Amino acid sequence: MAEMQQAKTPGTVRNVSDTARWAAYFRAQETARPDALFRDPYAERLAGQHGMDIANTLPEGNKHAWAWVARTYLFDQFIARELQQGAEMVVNLAAGLDARPYRMNLPASLQWIEVDLPEILEYKEEVLGSDKPVCLLERIRLDLSDSNARRGLFANLNQRAKKILLLTEGLLIYLSAEEVAALARDLGAGENFQRWIMDLTSPGLLKMMQRTTGKHLNEVGAPFKFAPAEGPDFFKPHGWEPAEVKGLLKVATKFKRPPLLLRILGHLPEKKGPAGNQPWSGVCLFRRAGTNTKK
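Above: the chain sequence. Below: its structure as tokens.
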């Protein structure tokens, strides 16, 4: 969504697309564990030295690896379940350096569409050039902030499958509430866009992030913005209903990933309703409003 900008300091985030290298670094770290929750043999190559430098240069950039791991794990779990329920197409918006079409056990007939800016997709194709995806992979170069272009794309994709699963992993936090609402309405206009998996953050956690890592990201034009006070219910007026919500800390604690103090907190019951000023982040599965609620 942001224009590509060059860094003055090597090893730091240059633009919003560089956060994909950051995420890939944590996937590589998890993959190296004997008890890994997932295996991403492509992550180390995709992250490169720059991904490692980002994690170790940003304030608290390497402190919350458990949250990145839990997010990836939950997306994997939700995706696998939706495919078992008959999803015919996956549309990954702002796909970044995600390698799921290569690393997951997917049907060979599955249509997997990646949408992102040209530069990040070109880098990805260069790194993965000799590797073969396990499904029908298509990459579309598009700036999702171009509302007319994205509506045209969504209308086209809506005609290509009857049950489409949408992914926005690590995207929405960089958008304003107005931009997220507009995106939700555009996606909701497609009757075959049935499910949507996203990650969300509470206002309380957003404030904490803005004081640390967010300071540098703000300087390169990628500030953290979106953390709706309503929580998942933010999407109800825009055509989407929450079907399932999983907190990252609760899931990560199950696998003993966070530090001990956080694991103690992770054993406590989660507050029902919006987290408000309490720090919280999670992965949510939404269904298009008006669709059958049976899984």
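Residues 28 and 56 are 14 Å apart (CA to CA).
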